[in-house]
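#struct-help
A.M.: can someone run this one for me? Single chain, 95 residues.
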Amino acid sequence: MLRPRFTLRVMLAVTAIVAVVMWRHVDWHNQRGEAIRSGRVAGGHPVPAPGLLRLFGESGYNALLVDPAMDAQEINQLRSLFPEAAYPYGRIGEF
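D.P.: on it. Structure tokens below:
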């Protein structure tokens, strides 16, 4: 039976690519947590988290309520952090 043969260079390249992908998801997980802990954002009902975030125990949200004082740039940043949330966002205090 033939065994696959890998060079050290290929193994290091694959390891580096996997590390970068995992680093990006860990950073994404931390940014989402900071946004929720800030108190300016409240999550709705839990839904499956996007990407590999489920590996880190992250849950998704079907909708977000945001602080009325948030500007469009901050809301666009939230859209990139929480792509699973439905749009438009509600404002905290409106419901």
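A.M.: thanks! Residues 8-37 form the longest helix (30 residues).
D.P.: also worth noting: The CA atoms of residues 2 and 84 lie 44 Å apart.
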